[in-house]
Amino acid sequence: MRNINLRYAEETYNADGTLATIKLHYPDNFNFAYDVVDDIADAEPDRRAMVWCNPEGEEHLFTFADMERWSNKTANYLASLGIGKGDMVMVILRRHYQFWFVALALAKLGAVMVPATFMLKEHDLTYRLDSASIKAIITTTVGDIANIVDNVRNQCESLETCILVNGAGGGMTQRDEAGNLLSDEPVGAVLSGPEGICAVPAFREGWEDFNTGVRAADDHFERLDTNVYDPMLMYFSSGTSGNPKMVLHNSTYSLAHLITAKHWHNVDPDGIHFTIADTGWGKAVWGKLYGQWLMEGCVFTYDFDRFHAGEILSLIDKYQITTLCCPPTMYRLMMQEDFSKYSLSSLQYSTTAGEALNPDLFDFWKKTTGLTIYEGFGQTETPLTIANLTHSKPQPGSMGKPVPLYTLQLQRYDGTECDTGESGEICIKMDPRPEGIMMEYYRNPEKTAEAIHDGWYHTGDVAWKDEHGSFWYVGRNDDVIKSSGYRIGPFEIENVLLEHDAVRECAVTGVPDPVRGKAVKATIVLNPGYKPSDDLTKELQTWVKKETAPYKFPRIIDYVDELPKTVNGKIRRVAIRKEDEAKAEA
């Protein structure tokens, strides 16, 4: 191990071992692909970079030398298609290993990677392609996304090149009653081994075949001149109204994720880290790329389609996962499993982000596995900014304290600082500008000015701080319910509901109310053995009244079979709100 992380960071520690200060330093030409991945590959070619597998039975171990070789081949291939510095390239590759080849290759070329989810429809995709002037799109054969691209590509003037990756199943291959894979092309274990990498071509009229092109490309790529402050990565971030914003990052974003991996995920360079995230979302590069490889660690990737808790628990033992990060919703689904069926002895550390962590889940995981779940907070616009870092002692339900790279303040609407215990917007000091915070909302100076002004980045997230300096999440500005003059955070009510035996999952939102402005509504998934009824509704309302201020109880309770979620398992309260607003207008 070369301790590459120390090359780019100066750190000091408190007496208890927690990180006290961190200062990043780097040359102007820093490039994550060249200076981290290729550096490790040249010094320790056999060091593990990624263990990858899928439900079809295909499995690969990629070393850092493999990543250097395949990213070089990919860079040469993409360059042959006219992709170069500054070009915007949309990447929709689910959890295919080709995503990592592409991410490194685009960094080497100085192009901008624009990851996106495979769940986009025609309207979503058209907006993204046009607003970002996407030059090329790289998509998977798995699912319907290639058809959707074909339906809109002629409407998008900037789009010059469409590149298709044969995903060889992606967890979606059908099986017969005996469990045998049903496919007209090679999938599964037949693709394992060196010859299986990028082995299966993809034929579609008007598209370039990624796998064939990359396999044929030269594996030597001469370093190009790039700058650490050049645009490197861009995500679309949706709000509750208007079109998604384009969040643009430079290469300091990759370096800032050193804290994510080293001081929060507690990545073991000789272990294996598993962050459950689809590559269309920012959480993937949080937990499956930048920080982990700065720590010279190995990441685990499972190219599945739908989350099944038992399946994930079995993988932890099979592949000897040492550190795990996933959203609270996924931990909650694991709670429903019989843990006596699984061995989690390899697991040494657990973290979570994406939603606030409910205390009952915190307690269950500690009792069942012996492990504390360390919560963290950040956004598409930022790396990790608040967290229970290693060696800290988390309080159940607290998101932790600001990480040392950033100066945070909770502010009122008038920009003044909140008192202890008072809820306010989480704001990050921008003078001097810290590494890792977005460059801007691309092509949207108005939204950028709304978010970054008076020396602060305004996150739009609301929290309160206790006397020890720990932050407690309340919700998005959009999620906070304004009812009869009160400001009500949904998380507190959800915590109370989840302590009732009947409640498996829940989401609290505000619904239009002619008297109160908004009424509190709880959308609930019940545990087995419980059925919706007026009596149960009254019982749950009384339950909340006993545990919180009476004005916070849900006046409306809706029972559903499942909650709307992102592909990464995060509950989409915005989808519930939009449906209720549509009903109110009808």
Gist of the model:
This protein is of the alpha/beta class and 586 residues long.
Description:
The chain has 586 residues and is α/β, with parallel strands linked by helices. The chain contains 18 helices and 31 strands. A nine-stranded mixed beta sheet has the order 4-3-15-14-16-17-18-19-20. A hairpin with a 5-residue loop joins strand 3 (48-53) and strand 4 (59-63). Helix 2 crosses helix 3 (64-80), helix 2 (32-43) packs across helix 4 and helix 3 packs across helix 7. It is globular. The N and C termini lie far apart (62 Å).
- The pLDDT mean sits at 94
The proportion of strand residues reads 25-35%
| Uncertain runs | none
| Rg calc | 24 Å
Helix content: 25-40%
Total number of β-strand segments?
31
The N- to C-terminal Cα distance equals: 62 Å
Going by helix content, strand content and strand pairing, the class is: alpha/beta
Helix and strand topology:
Blueprint lengths: L3 H4 L1 E5 L5 E6 L7 H12 L4 E6 L5 E5 H17 L7 E5 L5 H12 L2 E4 L6 H10 L4 E5 L4 H8 L8 E5 L8 E2 L5 E2 L25 E2 H7 L14 E7 L7 E6 L1 H5 L1 H7 L7 E4 L7 H6 L1 H5 L3 E5 L6 H10 L4 E3 L2 H8 L13 E4 L6 H11 L3 E6 L5 E4 L13 E2 L5 E4 L12 E6 L10 E2 L3 H7 E2 L2 E10 L5 E6 L4 E3 L2 E3 L1 H9 L4 E11 L3 E10 L7 H14 L8 E4 L13 H13 L1
Parallel strand pairs: 3-15, 5-6, 5-7, 7-8, 8-11, 14-15, 14-16, 16-17, 17-18, 30-31
Antiparallel strand pairs: 1-2, 3-4, 9-10, 12-13, 13-23, 18-19, 19-20, 21-22, 22-25, 24-25, 25-26, 27-28, 29-30
Helix pairs in contact: 2-3, 2-4, 3-4, 3-7
List keywords for this structure.
586 residues, 9-stranded mixed β-sheet
